[in-house]
């Protein structure tokens, strides 16, 4: 495990930063109001890391469709099973957004703030309210569009890019290849 982590995060400060954030997610109220974007070309360990995290967190982990964060929220009277899937989870991930997608900053702020979320499962009549308790991470090859002004501190203090610069190849030849 240590070898893998040092390969995907050669910088010990960056490695400790990511591990610390996942450790905070073990707490019922994580001390992070951040939305992580794990970015890097393929074959760099993003998926493997999230697979390991899912094994470690078990039922407290969920992967949801990326459209939760790239499309508008459904109307209030519509079922929202994707939002209900977040309830009680400690780590929530999604993947495969691309540069043409635009992040829905309202949804990101709602999930990473101390806001009450309201949702309804499929075929359910009653609405359910809850506080999100999770670390949120999106895994991408290209950063999606973020339409926000430089002055929008609410957005920029939440979004944290984590670069996966290593590559796993059959015949590694460069320093960042394994």
TrEMBL record:
Keywords: ATP-binding, Hydrolase, Nucleotide-binding. GO terms for molecular function: ATP binding; hydrolase activity. The keyword ATP-binding applies. Signal peptide: none annotated. The keyword Hydrolase applies. Residues 13-177 form the SF3 helicase domain. This is SF3 helicase domain-containing protein.
